[in-house]
TrEMBL record:
<dbReference type="GO" id="GO:0019632">
    <property type="term" value="P:shikimate metabolic process"/>
</dbReference>
<dbReference type="InterPro" id="IPR013708">
    <property type="entry name" value="Shikimate_DH-bd_N"/>
</dbReference>
<dbReference type="GO" id="GO:0004764">
    <property type="term" value="F:shikimate 3-dehydrogenase (NADP+) activity"/>
</dbReference>
<dbReference type="Pfam" id="PF01487">
    <property type="entry name" value="DHquinase_I"/>
</dbReference>
<dbReference type="InterPro" id="IPR001381">
    <property type="entry name" value="DHquinase_I"/>
</dbReference>
<dbReference type="GO" id="GO:0003855">
    <property type="term" value="F:3-dehydroquinate dehydratase activity"/>
</dbReference>
<dbReference type="InterPro" id="IPR006151">
    <property type="entry name" value="Shikm_DH/Glu-tRNA_Rdtase"/>
</dbReference>
<dbReference type="Pfam" id="PF01488">
    <property type="entry name" value="Shikimate_DH"/>
</dbReference>
<feature type="domain" description="Shikimate dehydrogenase substrate binding N-terminal">
    <location>
        <begin position="258"/>
        <end position="336"/>
    </location>
</feature>
<dbReference type="Pfam" id="PF08501">
    <property type="entry name" value="Shikimate_dh_N"/>
</dbReference>
<dbReference type="InterPro" id="IPR022893">
    <property type="entry name" value="Shikimate_DH_fam"/>
</dbReference>
<feature type="domain" description="Quinate/shikimate 5-dehydrogenase/glutamyl-tRNA reductase">
    <location>
        <begin position="377"/>
        <end position="449"/>
    </location>
</feature>
<protein>
    <recommendedName>
        <fullName>Shikimate dehydrogenase (NADP(+))</fullName>
    </recommendedName>
</protein>
<dbReference type="GO" id="GO:0009423">
    <property type="term" value="P:chorismate biosynthetic process"/>
</dbReference>
């Protein structure tokens, strides 16, 4: 089953004040032991922006149906979905079944907007009410599978059985064993002729909760607080609205994400989603917990699933799934970014090296005053790469690409030798590097993990040896100022932070995902007022200093007059960088075209 043939135009996007908004609701489960606590949670849900609340009666410690339902339904500030989930369907209620169904009927009479009736008892329930149901109420007939997600055919049959009960709304919740399970629910959702809730529970089903808005789901559940969930894998309301821009998702939203395992810790969605929003790009970026890359790509083969970042352990698996590969990525043997072209072909890139090499080049240009037009300042330089792992390969191939003379120094000599032979360079051990100074003005790049948190007092090379280098780059970015960089600076070298590599590669990927023109290449009269290095400088300072001493850069004022175009570019990059950590971006993204005011606001907040 693949998603390549789904007609995605089943859902209308309503437009209010020129802002499109889908019709998928956000429902916040309210689970508390007392009625008062439930009402407090419901008020919080409203403040957060939920559309309705699911009142889980089975969580109440004591329950007096008439009195409590009257209060809950009448005093709730949002429309109510009343659920009284029995233990046999994954809930907490363990009492008499007729009492449970009586409470649901009472909720209906007292003006609830929706009630949830489990498929197993739906016929009994409908028989008991004998067609007497207030016009406003909608009955959701639900089925929960806590083991797996059945085949497409089985889900189709299940939906037919639910519809046969007379349900106003169909709810099917299954459990993800693999991320591809959600695709079957999407197929059903998109073809459903009646309002339908389709959720795949669990961490591997996370995308079903977000993309239900794209595929026309009736609602998705969002918790009031992160972690206070009624089912595994549920996002928070705040996350849905602020991070995933849930209201604006639609049939034509392009899906991107970071493919890895584990992936929960990834900050990439916090980087790309605000950036997409800031330029009105109709895309979403999701964490994708993938077990088998080939299966994932085959299942989500539609033209709507278009761009991926790759992280541990899937960089090589991604490489093997590409139809075309960027020559450098081919030499490195791993990709970090994949784009689906309009013809469906998958193109792989390794943008790690682009990020690091661009940062080093800018550092060199800044120190010797060269312009971008005069070619790469790395050409002809002796470029020492410490480490021969993933980052080491990217740096060594990048150095070779720029015409540098590459030396690979690694603790394990064999790996150094292997890599050096591929880049036409020389190999030495880390120990030998201590006394290695064939010439002065060499460039050093550390790609070992020595000096990374928590072992911040370690360093891969002595201060004494550093005096032979004119520029030192450290791929490590936690901490930003490593001992190696501190000592290199004290020895008079130009230093380049690992954060610069990180943000640069993110920036390159952003360009590839959105197709927006790259700021780095924009040259016109305005941009020439402001050297590329200064732009980088602002960009990196704003990113890397923000956890400590934002506002970061008084350098912005030193430069005098900037071209407006550069300001916009800086702002965009700054948005990408600071968005997740600072709230200022919400102000910035409310301005359609990033303006000088917006940029300065960021810089001086
Ligand atoms: N700034 C960025 O955007 C960015 C991107 C990627 C990676 N990085 C950073 O770069 C570093 C390496 O990442 P990676 O993906 O290349 O890792 P990797 O593939 O595991 O390679 C690790 C390298 O470090 C060396 N090493 C490890 N412990 C050592 C020690 N105690 N003494 C000497 N050498 C040691 C290894 O040498 P052996 O071959 O002898 O084991 C190997 O060359 C990490 O700190 C990572 O955070 C930063």
């Amino acid at each position: 089953m693949t998603l390549d043939s789904i007609p995605l135009a089943t859902m209308d996007l309503q437009t209010a004040d020129g802002v499109r908004r889908n019709s998928t609701k956000i429902c916040a489960p309210v689970m508390a032991e007392t009625v008062d606590q439930m009402l407090t949670q419901a008020r919080k849900a409203k403040e957060l922006g939920a559309d309705l609340v699911e009142i889980r009666l089975d969580f109440l410690k004591t329950f007096n149906p008439r009195q409590d339902l009257e209060i809950l339904i009448k005093q709730c500030p949002l429309p109510t979905l009343i659920t009284y989930r029995p233990i046999w369907e994954g809930g907490k209620y363990d009492g008499d079944e007729s009492k449970r169904q009586n409470a649901l009927r009472l909720a209906m009479e007292l003006g609830a907007d929706y009630i949830d009736v489990e498929l197993q008892v739906a016929h009994d329930f409908y028989n008991a009410i004998q067609g007497k149901k207030p016009a406003k109420i909608k009955i959701i007939v639900s089925s929960h599978n806590y083991q797996n997600t059945p085949s497409l055919e089985e889900i189709g049959n299940l939906v037919a059985r639910i519809l046969a009960t007379g349900a106003d709304i169909v709810k099917v919740a299954t459990t993800a064993v693999d991320i591809t399970d959600s695709a079957r629910l999407f197929q059903i959702l998109v073809h459903s002729q009646v309002p339908m809730i389709g959720i795949v529970m669990g961490e591997k089903g996370f995308i079903s909760r977000i993309l239900s808005a794209k595929f026309g789901g009736f609602l998705t559940f969002g918790s009031i607080e992160a972690g206070l969930v009624s089912a595994p894998g549920q996002p928070a309301v705040k996350e849905l609205l602020e991070l995933y821009n849930f209201r604006q998702l639609g049939p034509d939203t392009k899906v991107h994400g970071v493919i890895g395992n584990p992936i929960g810790h990834s900050k990439s969605p916090h980087l790309y989603n605000p950036a997409f929003k800031s330029v009105n790009f109709n895309g979403i970026y999701l964490p994708l917990l993938v077990d088998n890359v080939a299966n994932f790509l085959k299942t989500y083969s539609s033209h709507d699933f278009v761009g991926y970042s790759y992280t541990i352990p899937h960089k090589e698996a991604g490489f093997n799934c590409c139809d075309e590969i960027d020559p450098i990525a081919k030499e490195i043997g791993a990709i970090s970014c994949m784009i689906k072209r309009p013809d469906g072909n998958l193109m792989g890139y390794n943008v790690d090296y682009l990020g690091a090499i661009a940062a080093i080049e800018e550092g060199l240009r800044a120190s010797n005053g060269a312009s971008q037009a005069s070619g790469s300042p790395l050409t002809g330089k002796l470029f020492v790469v410490m480490g021969a792992g993933g980052a080491g390969k990217a740096l060594a191939f990048g150095g070779k690409e720029k015409g540098a003379r590459v030396i690979v120094a690694n603790r394990t000599y064999d790996k150094a030798k292997q890599l050096a032979s591929k880049v036409g360079g020389e190999a030495i051990t880390l120990a030998e590097l201590e006394n290695f100074h064939p010439e002065d003005g060499m460039i050093l790049a550390n790609t070992t993990s020595v000096g990374m948190k928590p072992k911040i007092e370690s360093t891969p090379l002595s201060k004494e040896a550093l005096k032979h280098y004119s520029l030192v780059f450290d791929a490590i970015y936690t901490p930003k100022m490593t001992r190696l960089l501190r000592e290199a600076q004290e020895s008079g070298a130009t230093i380049v932070y690992g954060t610069e590599m990180f943000i640069n590669q993110a920036f390159v990927q952003f360009e590839k995902f959105t197709g927006l023109p790259g700021t780095m290449n924009q040259q016109n009269d305005q941009t020439q007022e402001f050297s590329p290095h200064q732009v980088y400088h602002l960009k990196f300072l704003s990113f890397s200093d923000l956890s400590l001493n934002f506002p970061c850069s008084t350098k912005a004022t030193d430069s005098g007059h900037f071209g407006e175009k550069y300001i916009r570019n800086i702002c965009l990059v700054t948005l990408i960088a600071v968005g997740p950590i600072f709230q200022h971006y919400s102000y910035c993204i409310s301005i359609p075209q990033c303006s000088i005011r917006c940029c300065l606001l960021l810089l001086y907040q």
